[in-house]
Specification:
Layout: E1 2-6, H1 10-17, H2 20-27, E2 32-36, E3 50-51, E4 61-62, H3 64-77, E5 82-92, H4 95-104, E6 108-111, E7 117-118, H5 120-123, E8 128-131, H6 141-152, E9 185-186, E10 189-190, H7 200-218, H8 220-223, H9 232-248
Parallel strand pairs: 1-2, 1-6, 4-7, 5-6, 5-8
Antiparallel strand pairs: 3-4, 9-10
Helix pairs in contact: 4-6, 7-9
Bound molecules: adenine.
């Protein structure tokens, strides 16, 4: 899968992709990262990429010509690539949107602005407008990297066998159960006995129950859309009883 970043700050993107799982995946040829700098498509001496807003007002607006030329260059590399622009006004990213993008198996072209907004005629070219949350960032590079990271996990071979993408938080709309490793006793805080019992059925039940507990306590909104299994009701009742018990302590 090709990820093409239209960015005024290619070093930022290259740095971020040059480590850990994404780097390994790129080295293995499972994905590729290309940066296209709109500044390379300017024709004036100062390589200008922004200008004052028509109609007046503070701030600057990113000029259409260099970004349009950069998009055309990206489409040469990937004619079918999905063009994604970032704006706080876009659709908020969630795991199901990530999975839909991954399932398309199409290359992605990220249109990253910085500081200022895009000229509307550039935004109009985007296939998707995405926000990564209700807060304002200084540019589109970080949201683009967030999407690339989340989508890459679904590319076959990117995650090791042990780290299957489906087994994680959010895919089943439940948060993850707590994990422990050695030492068994860390400054008095002990690993739960059940995890040391060797009884796989008990461990599986405990993990499911703790995933439900974490979701109920921390993100109850997720429980409504969770894929609940037979037996989860019993676990949930146990959790409620335990929480009630804790209240009285
Ligand atoms: N650009 C500025 N803020 C943003 C956000 N929250 N998500 C995506 N792009 C943005």
């Amino acid at each position: 899968m090709k990820f093409i970043f239209i960015t005024l700050f290619p070093e930022l993107v290259e740095q971020a992709c040059g480590h850990s799982i994404l780097k390994r995946a790129a080295d293995a040829g499972l994905l590729s990262v290309t940066c296209i700098n709109p500044r390379d498509f300017t024709t004036d001496k100062h390589r200008t990429v922004d200008d004052t807003p028509c109609g007046g007002g503070v701030g600057m607006v990113l000029k259409p010509e260099p970004f349009s030329a950069a998009i055309a260059e990206a489409k040469k590399i990937s004619p079918q690539g999905i063009l994604i622009a970032f704006t706080p006004a876009g659709r908020t990213l969630c795991q199901s949107a990530v999975e839909k993008l991954a399932a398309k198996e199409q290359d992605i072209i990220f249109l990253c602005g910085h500081y200022e907004g895009f000229d509307e005629r550039i935004l109009a070219q985007a296939d998707l407008k995405i926000s990564i949350g209700d807060y304002v960032l200084t540019g589109g590079e970080l949201p683009a990297l967030v999407i690339m990271d989340a989508v890459s996990r679904f590319i076959p071979g990117v995650l090791g066998k042990a780290e299957s993408a489906e087994d994680e938080s959010f895919t089943a709309s439940l948060l993850e159960y707590p994990q422990y490793t050695r030492p068994i006793d860390f400054s008095g805080a002990k690993v739960p006995d059940v995890l040391l019992s060797g009884n796989h059925a008990h461990i599986k039940r405990w993990r499911r129950k703790e995933a439900i507990r974490a979701t109920y306590c921390l993100r109850p909104d997720l429980l409504a859309k969770a894929d609940l299994l037979e037996g989860d009701g019993t676990l949930f009742l146990e959790i409620l009883e335990e929480l009630k018990g804790n209240e009285h302590e």
